[in-house]
Amino acid sequence: MDPATLAARLASSVVVPLVKKLFVQEGAGAGIVDRPVRISGLISFRGEKRTLDERDLAKLGDTLVERALRTCGPAEQPIAQDERIAVAEAVARTLHALGSIDIDDLHAVRLGTREFAALLFTAAPDADRGLSADGARFHAALVETACLHILHFFTQRSTFVSATLVEQTRQLAELSARMDALARRFPGRPSEDAAFEERYARDIIAGHNHLTIYGIELAHSPDSWPLDTAYLSLQAEFGAVADDTDPPQPALPAELALAGRDRVLLRGVAGSGKTTLVQWLAVAIARDALPGKLDGLRGRVPFVLPVRRFGAAGFPVPDEFLSAARYPRAGSQPSGWADRVMSEGRGLLLVDGIDESSEDEREQLRHGLRRLLALYPGNVWLLTSRPSAVRENWLTAEGFTELMLSPLSHEGVAAFIQRWHAAAREGATDLDRLDQYEHTLLGAVRINRDLGRLATNPLMCGLICALHRDRRGYLPRGRRALYDAALSMLLERRDRERDMQITDGIDLTQEPKVQLLQKLAHWMLVNGRSEMDRKVAVSTLAQHLPAIPNAAEQGGPDDIYRHLLNRTGLLREPAPGSVDFVHRTFQDYLAARAAVERHDFDFLINHAHQDEWEEVIRMSVALARPDECAYLLDGLLAARKGARPVESQHRKLLAAASLEHATELDPAVRARVHRYTRDLVRPTTLEGARALGWIGPIVLEMLPDPTHVSDTEAHRLAVTATSVADDRAIEYLTRMRDRPSMAVRSQLAYAWRRYDTERYADEIIAHLDEDALYFPVSNVSELHALRRLGGRPRMQISGMFTPSELIDGIVAERLTHLWLAYDLGGSLAWLSAFPQLRTVRVSSRVVAACTGVPAGIEVVTV
Fold first, then answer.
1. Which of 167, 246, 319, 395 could form a disulfide linkage to 400, CB 3.0–4.6 angstroms apart?
2. Above 80 in pLDDT, residue 494?
C-alpha cells in the first residue's frame, strides 16, 4: 500500500486532537492580534507553559502511527511490524523541530503544507535515519498530514492574523474537508491497485521522459533526450483584456498558469510544445517531482490520452483509457481500477490533440467528455488543440479555462538555442565549432527578420539549430526551403555523416525515401488520420513500390517499411502495430508535396473548410507552380453551392493566410485575395480579433487604418495586430499609441515582449500615456529600456528577477504601484528601496508569501 495514500485516510477527527496537544491553550481574553505569532512561542513542550514533555511527544508519534496503520487490512501494511516504533520515533523527532524553526504562524500558513513540512525535515535532517525506504516514505507522509492539520489549526486560533489570510484559510479548510470526505467514502484501496499504480508510474516515466531534438545525435544513442534535460518552460497567455477596467494578465510559465485550475483547454500552434507539456506533467507526477505551485496535482494518476488513437468510438470509458493510449500493460490493470481512480477524483486526464480528430467527430468527443465530467467529478483535465480546431469558449460552459501557448519570446528563442547547443556538446567532437555556431545563430535570429519569423516555437527552433550546424553556419530562407533542407538532413546526410554502415541490406537515396513517405502521409490526409495501422502502412507501400524501382529491387514492402522506420528519423511506432510521423508538421508537409505532385488541387479545395487541412493547403501554395498556385487560391475564393457562411469565410481567410508562402504569383490574383478578404479582417469581437492572428503578417496589409475608428474597434485591431509576432506589426501599432483608451494602451504595453525590445520601447512604450497604466517588464532588457525612458510609476513584473535586479533597474523615485506576477521568494523587505511605493499587487496563484512588507505599503491580491 502507498504510504501517502494511507496517510490521506486519516480524518481530521483523528489528527486534530493530537495536533492540539502540540500547542499551548489560549488564555482567557485572547483575541485577534495585529501581528503574527512565533511558532516557537506556541508549542507546549518548551517554555514556562510547558504541558508536554518529550516522552509525551513520543507517545503522540506512536498514536499517529497506530491510528494510520489501523485504517488498512493485514495485506495492506506499508511497513513491517518491527519498524513501527522506529517510524513513531522519527515522527516525534520531526515534530520536535517545531520548537526550533524561526518563523511565525502567518508565514507558516502562506508556505503551504508541503513547504512547511520541508522546513521541518530540514530542521530535523536525521529524523528518518535508519528507516527502510518504505518506512521513510511512511514517515514523510505522516508528517505532511500532520502539517496540513497544524496549519489549519493555526488559522482557527482566535489570535491568528485573519484579515490577510482569508483565502489561505478557505483553501486549507477545503483541503481538510476533502480529506475527511475521502477518508469516509474510500476507507482503503485494494493492495493490487497500489501495486499496479507504482508499476504504472514507472512505465509513465520510462515512456514519456524523452524528447526528440532534431539534429543532435550521438553514435550510440537514439534521437531523443531526457525530458528533464531538454524541457524548456513555455509561456501561456490568458487572452486580451475585455474592457477598460484592468490590464491584461501577464503571460506565465505554463505550469504556473495551470496551478489551481481543474479544467483547462490549452491551445497552441503546431510545434509550440503542447505534447511536450503533457509529457512533462505526466512524468513530474509519476516522479512526485512537481513544483510547489502544482501541489494540488500530487498523488494523482496521469492518463495520457492522444485523441488520434480514440478511433470512431469517440471518448473511451475509464476502463479503456490504457488500451486507448496503447499502454502495453493495459490488460494487467486490476478489474475496475480506472473507474475507482476516477470515482475517487484522483485522475489527471491529459487529452492531447483535439484537432487530430475529424471535424465531424469533435461534437461526439465533446458529448463523451461532458458525460465523463458529470459521472466523475473532482478529477483534473487538460485538453490540448491547435488554435483553430475548436471555437473560442468551446468548453466554457463545462468550466474550462482557455489558455494559449505563446510564441517564444526573443529571450525564449535565445534560451532554446543555448540549451540546444549545450545538449549537442555532450559527446560532440566539434566543440569549437559549436561555440561559434551558437554565437552566430544567436546574432542571426536577432538581426534576420525572416529567420526571426520562423523561430517562434520549439520545433522550428530545433530545426534551425540542427540545419545551422549541419550546413556549417548556412541557413536556408523561407519555410519551404527550411523543410526541404530538414528532409535532406534527416533522410540522406544523417547516416552518411555519422558513418553508419548498411545494416539492413537497403541503401536508398533521398528521393525514393521522400516518395514513399509521401504515400504514407497522403493516405493519412485522405483518411483523416494522424496514425495508421502498420499493416495498412505496409500495404500502402506494396501498392506503390512497383513504380519506384530503386526501392522495389532492394526489398519487399516489409523490408522497406522497417528501413523507413529505423533509418529516416521521421517515422516512429508509438505502440506495437501502429505508426505515425514524429511530428504532425512533417506529415502535413509531405502530404502537401504528394497532393501537388498528383495535381490534387480540387481535392484540396473541397476540404479547405476543415481546419486540419490548413497547414497542408498553405504548404501546397508554397510548393505549387505559379499557375497551380493561382488555381488553388481562386478556388478558395470561389462561391460554393451549399457551403455555410462560416465555411466560405474560412476558405477566404485561408487564401489570405497562404499569400505569404507563394514564391511567384500573378499580381491580379493577389489583388483578388485582398479584395475578397478586406472586410473579413475587420473583427467585430475580441474572439474574432484573436482568431485572425493565424493568418500571419499578411493580415497587417489588410487591416483597416486604425486612426479614425472608435476606441472599441481600435482595441480589437490592436489585439489582431499584436497577435502577429513580427516586427512589421510595430509600424501599424504606432498609429494607435496616442489613444487614451486604457484597453488599447494595456494591449500595446502587454505585447512588448513579442517584438524587438529597443525599437518597441522607442516607438510604442515611450508614447503611451502613463495614467493608471501598468507597464509590463518580462526580462532585463525591458527593465533597462524602461529605465532609459525615465521609469514609470506603475510596473508589472511579469518575469523572473532577483530583488537586486529590480532595485538596480527601476527608477526608485517614480515607482508608486508594483504588480508582482511571480513569486520572487523570501521577504519583501527590499521594497523599502522605493520611497514612493504605496501599493503592491500580487497574483494569488503564483505568490505564496508576502512577509517583511515595509510599513505604509498596501498589499492587494488579484
1. 395
2. no
